[in-house]
Amino acid sequence: AQSVTQLDSQVPVFEEAPVELRCNYSSSVSVYLFWYVQYPNQGLQLLLKYLSGSTLVKGINGFEAEFNKSQTSFHLRKPSVHISDTAEYFCAVSETNQGGKLIFGQGTELSVKP
Amino acid sequence: DTGVSQDPRHKITKRGQNVTFRCDPISEHNRLYWYRQTLGQGPEFLTYFQNEAQLEKSRLLSDRFSAERPKGSFSTLEIQRTEQGDSAMYLCASSTQGRETQYFGPGTRLLVL
């Protein structure tokens, strides 16, 4: 069965510092990988996705992530964070050709301090 | 593209009452998904439709839960005889078959007293 582990439940960081949010997954088949962001009392917004091709994917708001198949990881990075990046971040996977249902990690709360 | 909409945004009900939520997907999307998110957790898959057919249901979806998508457009999720454990955010998402990105609505937050 698929599962997603986000290794940090909370990540505090100062403004303009770099940040990495870690995500590992397990699956016996090929997967698609996603990062979503959720602001308080809102739905989820897609940051970026890996479907195939280049393992380094760039998303919105300056975020990027790298797919590492051997380590089954898909860590999210940003070189310089802003106060407005404060939010909950979710990593998710879906199995290819399986209807697209997403399996989510438990989330990482990113808190950017001035 | 008006996005995915959900109604109501908030619902407070008493234990034992029935509630129904509505989701309107992006108009050209033929897949529609329901997820449940409890406080401090990631969303959990409940069920999904391709057009009007319900193709998969999670074991999380007890007999008290039913979902429909009668004309392949909007969907409803009904919870009968609500329990306090049903308190959660119910999220709807839509996508196009063959394109893997799901677009989420703002959610319906349910509180069962």
How would you briefly describe this protein structure?
The complex is a heterodimer of chains A (114) and B (113). Chain A is mainly beta and 114 residues long. Helices cover 0% and strands 54% of the residues of chain A.
Question: Topology of this structure?
Answer:
The complex is a heterodimer of chains A (114) and B (113).
Chain A: E1 3-6, E2 10-14, E3 19-21, E4 23-26, E5 31-38, E6 44-50, E7 56-58, E8 64-68, E9 73-78, E10 87-95, E11 103-104, E12 108-113
Parallel strand pairs in A: 2-12
Antiparallel strand pairs in A: 1-4, 3-9, 5-6, 5-10, 7-8, 8-9, 10-11, 10-12
Chain B: E1 5-7, E2 10-13, E3 19-24, E4 31-37, E5 44-50, E6 53-57, E7 65-68, E8 75-79, E9 88-96, E10 99-104, E11 108-112
Parallel strand pairs in B: 2-11
Antiparallel strand pairs in B: 1-3, 3-8, 4-5, 4-9, 5-6, 7-8, 9-10, 9-11
Describe it for me?
The complex is a heterodimer of chains A (about 110) and B (about 110). Helices cover about 0% and strands about 55% of the residues of chain A. Chain A is built from no helices and twelve strands. Chain A has strands spanning about 5, 10-15, 20, 25, 30-40, 45-50, 55-60, 65-70, 75-80, 85-95, 105, 110-114. In chain A, strands 2, 5, 6, 10, 11 and 12 form a six-stranded mixed β-sheet that branches. Chain A has a four-stranded antiparallel β-sheet with strand order 3-9-8-7, with no helix packed on it. In chain A, strands 1-4 form a two-stranded antiparallel ribbon. In chain A, strand 10 (about 85-95) and strand 11 (about 105) form a beta hairpin. The termini of chain A are far apart. The mean pLDDT of chain A is about 95. Chain B is globular, with a radius of gyration of 13 Å. Chain B is mostly beta strands. In chain B, strands 2, 4, 5, 6, 9, 10 and 11 form a seven-stranded mixed β-sheet that branches. Chain B has a four-stranded antiparallel β-sheet with strand order 1-3-8-7, with no helix packed on it. The interface of A and B includes residues 32, 34 and 99 of A.
